[in-house]
Amino acid sequence: MKKDTIILGIETSCDETAASIVKNGTEIVSNVVASQIESHKRFGGVVPEIASRHHVEQITIVLEEALQEADMGWDQIDAITVTEGPGLVGALLVGVNAAKALAFAKQKPLVGVHHIAGHIYANRLEKEFTFPLLALIVSGGHTELVLMKEHGSYELIGETRDDAAGEAYDKVARMLDLPYPGGPHIDRLAAIGEETIAFPRAWLEDGSYDFSFSGLKSAVINKIHNAKQRGETLKPEDIAASFQASVVDVLTTKTLRAAKEFNVKQVIVAGGVAANKGLRAGLQAKFSETDIPLLIPPLKLCTDNAAMIAAAGTIAYEQGRRSGLDLNANPSLLLK
Questions:
Q1: Residues 116 and 140 in one domain
Q2: Which of 31, 61, 175, 326 could form an S-S bond across to 20 if both were Cys, CB 3.0 to 4.6 Å?
Q3: Best CA proximity match to 28, nearest among 58, 59, 7
Q4: Which top-level group of life is the source organism from (predicted)?
């Protein structure tokens, strides 16, 4: 019988300190996440220096908890995988240096993982991939369409040219005086509001799979400012519903068109904004009219976690990829 592959994953790219143990790239044995939302909430966004300090405080604790939850020792771990980028450089450095120290001390192979590859492979923790597949990645810093023809192969066919969808959500939320993180609050308001405002959709030139949400964000901000100047009252829930309708329309339409053009056998959704109920419903409605399977991970696997890093790292490890002890944080790491 083939021996199980047991991988430890470490994730510290932004404001979650996480460690996880995954078996064979598909089964979560343990998954520990220490969130910093409460610390950053009063600032209206993530403060890099504070995030880094919290990672230093939490990294040893979450690693120990991951091993205890899995009831495993270091002798059972085959390799250590860690997010090397992209992300906040100070935050990334905490995880990378912890992983290097452990790899050296425990004499384990070290594998650096791309954060977005992790988000993609979060889906494999729920269902096996069928190639070729199309991945829609939607998060605070990324909005991308990635074509995969096999494991570990990523072809970028569309990306944001300015604001990512999640970034636009957070900026609109601040204009509406909503707490951080703003995305879930916009989603909640949109569910009870009506699309009464015709906000723009940026389709870009014919055939492009790129995205642009800066114009939409500006249109929302201008609408709010103009209403205040005129003494008019706009319903926050209607602004949220109208804004979200524009975002969802563009994301779902382009994803469906790309899925058909590239004749994919599966479409997967990844990233923090994949937790958005409006987006999930919009995608399900679009793809219910096709025979292309749509896979959206459960909410716990949409936001940053280490199980997704271990899942992606398993493929890299099995393909023979290794990182040296000179591995460094790369905040601008490209997916390839």
A1: no
A2: 31
A3: 7
A4: Bacteria
Q: Do 290 and 306 belong together in one domain?
A: no
Do 160 and 59 have their domain in common?
A: no
Which residue shows structure tokens 């880094």? 52
Q: Per the annotation, where are the binding residues for Fe cation?
A: 115, 119, 304
Find the helix or strand (DSSP H, E) in which 30 lies: strand 27-35
| Domain annotation covers residue 106 | yes
Report the binding-site residues: 115, 119, 137-141, 170, 183, 187, 276, 304
Residue type, 240: A
Residue 334 falls inside a structural domain: no
> In this structure, are 48 and 154 located in the same domain?
no
Task: With respect to residue 91, please indicate whether it lies within any of the assigned structural domains.
Answer: yes
- Regarding whether 156 and 72 lie in a shared domain, the answer is no
User: What pTM does this model have?
Assistant: 0.95
Binding region for substrate: 137-141, 170, 183, 187, 276
Q: Give the Å distances, CA to CA, from 174 to 43, 45, 138, 193.
A: 11, 10, 19, 18
